[in-house]
UniProtKB/TrEMBL annotation:
Keyword terms of this UniProt record: Hydrolase
Gene Ontology terms, MF aspect: hydrolase activity
Protein name (database record): Alpha/beta hydrolase
Source organism per UniProt: Tamilnaduibacter salinus
Residues annotated as domain Serine aminopeptidase S33: 74-185
A Pfam family the protein falls into: Hydrolase_4
């Protein structure tokens, strides 16, 4: 592209960048984490999966939509899946659609503002939603072991949930926490992303401080002990760099497992060997009465 054309393109885009910056300055950078939509991409029946529509009421009067996917045959456990920051459960379904055939129930939930769920998303609200989903599982528990699987944003939310669930001695206890393609902390990844754009670079510190400090997964993971932790991260993740996964793994206490992968961001479960590694982790750590 010629220098003049490149300059013209930058000038045309600059007002939009300035608007984005103004929005961040007014609302803080929590909005960086949420990109919901209401499009239906795929439904469980199109994958020949049995399912139930679930509606969960939150303490602040939002209604969340989720899907319950029952295991084929006798359930070995239940996986509570917290998805990433874009779209809704219908676009993330394929990440867990393989689990019922392997005898695991799945509960997948949309945060407020996503899919059919009411409200507008923000970090405190999404944390409320994640806990509401876990409480739904507790109220409908079939006594099978419960595992938390959080992917990308869902891993950040899941770490906070798991720490609170563990320290408050809630039931059913989590048998394992699996963090896939997850950042080491909300502040940490916000600062890193703001640092990468020239217009927001000067504001990376003050904007990141608009996120409460108690949400940093790297600081919360030790308190999940003795719940086993599995951290999964790709060496070529272009969205959340590999060092975030290593940082989380180093912070976690034993028992823990690190799975080094080689896929695009959140592409873990396309690869059968990575699926088997997660199944092996759950089989090793599940406890039954």
């Amino acid at each position: 592209m010629a220098h003049g054309a490149a300059t013209l393109l930058l000038i045309r885009r600059l007002p939009f960048a300035l608007l984005a910056l103004l929005a961040l300055l007014q609302t803080g950078c929590g909005s960086l984490f949420f990109y919901p939509d209401q499009t239906v991409y795929i439904t469980p029946d199109r994958l020949n999966l049995d399912y139930e529509d679930v509606y969960v009421e939150t303490p602040d009067d939002e209604t969340l939509h989720g899907w319950w996917l029952p295991a084929h045959g006798n359930a070995k456990g239940t996986v509570y899946f917290l998805h990433g920051n874009a779209q809704n459960i219908s676009s993330h379904l394929l990440n867990v659609a393989w689990l019922p055939e392997r005898h695991y129930n799945v509960f997948i939930l949309d945060y407020r503002g996503y899919g059919q769920s009411t409200g507008e998303p923000d970090i405190p609200g999404a944390l409320t939603d994640a806990r509401a989903g876990m409480e739904w599982i507790a109220g409908n528990h079939d006594q099978s072991p419960v595992f938390l699987l959080g992917q990308s944003l869902g891993g950040g939310l899941g770490t906070v949930l798991a720490e609170r669930w563990q320290t408050q001695d809630q039931a059913p206890p989590l048998q394992g926490v699996i963090l896939d393609s997850t950042f080491s902390g909300f502040r940490a990844i916000a600062r890193e992303k703001l640092d990468g754009f020239w217009l927001t670079w000067p504001f990376q510190i003050p904007l990141s401080w608009t996120i409460p400090g108690e949400y940093e997964g790297v600081e919360l993971l030790p308190a999940i002990h003795p719940t086993p932790v599995m951290v999964i991260h790709s060496v070529r993740d272009p969205v959340i760099p590999y060092h975030h996964g290593r940082t989380l793994f180093e912070a976690a206490k034993e028992p823990k497992r690190f799975l080094k992968t080689d896929t695009a961001h959140a592409g873990t479960f396309v690869i059968p060997a990575y699926r088997e590694a997660v199944l092996a982790f759950m089989a090793k750590h599940k406890k039954t009465d």
